[in-house]
């Protein structure tokens, strides 16, 4: 694949900033190169030294977990950083466009707008699947990215795999980003295994959901080594803090927490769905492959307000096209879900 025709020329030719920790990689020595404070930190642990700019230890751990070489892993300050960088390396302004399929994760649009890039919205079908023909016929000469979120936020469903293949196979002038933020809860295999077959695909995942590390801010983009090289070139030099790197490394070794979380959350989700389904005011619960459910219900707006007044916070999606009268509910602990169900019953009684 000819990446030079996709990557903006000034990015392709960019000579990246070379940080002190890029130039000297050893761990021992007298460090007088990065203008740090040699006395340490006003904390029990010392954080006075800059962290590894390339996060190699985390990448090695992820490489073993995901069965992918380290040079196909980019680590961002949340996947939100990866979304922004991918837009910035391919789109220069309103002449360039991205395609997104609403209702979907809001940051694709926000990031594109911040970068003054045109947005082509091709809504999902009534069943929240891709409108493949319309997506492909909406592609303009300067379109550089198609965003696909699967399982999709806020609808929770997975996108038909064959539709994704059709998009990938028929869009060669840019990247297809497959956002798998919720893949750990799903029975669908990741597209990571397809990266060697499709060089226009970038898969995004995050530690913010099933891994339980949202506050540490760490997201991954997996792609062809050449794409990863460019993302590394344009990221801020020390985009992942040292404390995050240390904690994530420790967390990645605890696989049991992840597997237990997935099992418990999926179990709690099924219980919650059964309880909600028993209510006549619930119109439809969309099939969910994520850790949340989108529920279409009577008087959704009033219910949402009532729940807030009772300090039960959900996400009202009623104003989003195709999500009329719908509330997105994150699956909580069983006792939290019980409070929710009880408050909904109270509201309708
Ligand atoms: C689909 C999707 N992608 C990405 C993100 C952002 O993830 P991160 O916390 O890694 O920035 C979210 C967060 O809600 C999401 O729903």
UniProtKB/TrEMBL annotation:
Its cofactor is pyridoxal 5'-phosphate. Its EC number is 2.6.1.9. The modification N6-(pyridoxal phosphate)lysine is found at residue 209. The gene is hisC. Keywords: Amino-acid biosynthesis, Aminotransferase, Histidine biosynthesis, Pyridoxal phosphate, Transferase. Residues 46-344 form the Aminotransferase class I/classII large domain. InterPro entries: Aminotrans_II_pyridoxalP_BS, Aminotransferase_I/II_large, HisP_aminotrans, PyrdxlP-dep_Trfase, PyrdxlP-dep_Trfase_major, PyrdxlP-dep_Trfase_small. It catalyses: L-histidinol phosphate + 2-oxoglutarate = 3-(imidazol-4-yl)-2-oxopropyl phosphate + L-glutamate. It comes from Aquirufa ecclesiirivi. Pathway: Amino-acid biosynthesis; L-histidine biosynthesis; L-histidine from 5-phospho-alpha-D-ribose 1-diphosphate: step 7/9; Lipid metabolism. This is Histidinol-phosphate aminotransferase. Pfam families: Aminotran_1_2. SUPFAM superfamilies: PLP-dependent transferases (SSF53383). The lineage of its organism: Bacteria, Pseudomonadati, Bacteroidota, Cytophagia, Cytophagales. GO terms for molecular function: histidinol-phosphate transaminase activity.
């Amino acid at each position: 694949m000819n990446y030079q025709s996709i990557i903006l020329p000034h990015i392709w030719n960019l000579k990246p900033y070379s940080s002190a920790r890029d130039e000297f990689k050893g761990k021992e020595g007298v460090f007088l190169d990065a203008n740090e404070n040699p006395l340490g930190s006003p904390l029990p642990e010392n954080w006075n030294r800059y962290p590894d700019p390339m996060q190699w230890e985390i990448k090695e751990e992820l490489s073993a977990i995901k069965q992918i070489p380290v040079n196909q892993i980019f680590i961002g300050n949340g996947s939100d950083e990866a979304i922004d960088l991918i837009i910035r390396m391919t789109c220069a302004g309103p002449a360039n466009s991205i395609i997104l399929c609403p209702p979907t994760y809001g940051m694709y649009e926000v990031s594109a707008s911040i970068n003054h890039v045109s947005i082509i919205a091709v809504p999902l079908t009534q069943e929240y699947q891709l409108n493949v023909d319309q997506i492909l016929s909406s592609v303009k000469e300067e379109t550089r990215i198609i965003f696909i979120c699967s399982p999709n936020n806020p609808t929770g469903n997975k996108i038909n795999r064959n539709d994704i293949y059709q998009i990938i196979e028929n869009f060669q002038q840019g990247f297809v980003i497959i956002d798998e933020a919720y893949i750990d809860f799903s029975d669908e295999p990741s597209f990571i295994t397809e990266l060697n077959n499709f060089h226009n695909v970038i898969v995004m995942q995050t530690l913010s959901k099933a891994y339980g590390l949202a506050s540490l801010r760490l997201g991954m983009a997996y792609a062809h080594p050449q794409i990863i090289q460019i993302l590394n070139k344009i990221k801020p030099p020390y985009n992942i803090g040292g404390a995050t790197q240390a904690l994530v490394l420790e967390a990645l070794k605890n696989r049991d927490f992840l597997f237990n979380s997935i099992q418990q959350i999926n179990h709690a989700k099924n219980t919650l769905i059964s309880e909600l389904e028993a209510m006549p005011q619930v119109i439809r619960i969309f099939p969910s492959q994520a850790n949340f459910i989108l529920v279409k219900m009577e008087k959704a707006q009033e219910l949402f307000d009532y729940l807030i007044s009772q300090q039960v916070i959900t996400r009202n999606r009623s104003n989003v096209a195709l999500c009329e009268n719908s509330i997105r509910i994150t699956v909580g602990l069983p006792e939290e879900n019980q409070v929710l169900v009880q408050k909904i019953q109270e509201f309708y009684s």
